[in-house]
Amino acid sequence: MNVLFVCTGNTCRSPMAEGLFRAINEAKHENHLALSAGLFTAPGAEPTPNAVKAVAADVDISEHRSRAVSPKFIDAADVVIGMTTDHKNVLLRQYPFDKDKIFTLGEWAGTNEEVEDPFGQDQSVYDACAAQIKQLLEKGWTKLEK
Question: In the UniProt record, does the keyword Hydrolase occur (predicted)?
């Protein structure tokens, strides 16, 4: 299964989700693929240092570079996961024919939680965000096993 994670700038939440997904995938010896992109990016931007640190115990995302969502990424994905309802709504407006595969991470996990943007906040906020993302990924993983 190909999963695309989407946030705003592709420097915090979606790179953390992509990296954590890959770490879980490897630990479970699965062969799912993950990619992340942003709705409003500065292409090539590095992940924030706090995001790198927040997931460092599980995965190294320091080499990630931001990229914009594109039709090619949407087409290749089996599931497109935004971090918030706002991300989902933008994706639905831009890709209405793909509505059946666009969710928020909270929806996908069955909790309907929003993953709020930690950008510009201290490390504790990033750590909490990474922990939330990891928990939601683990809850939603059963959908990949069907």
Answer: yes
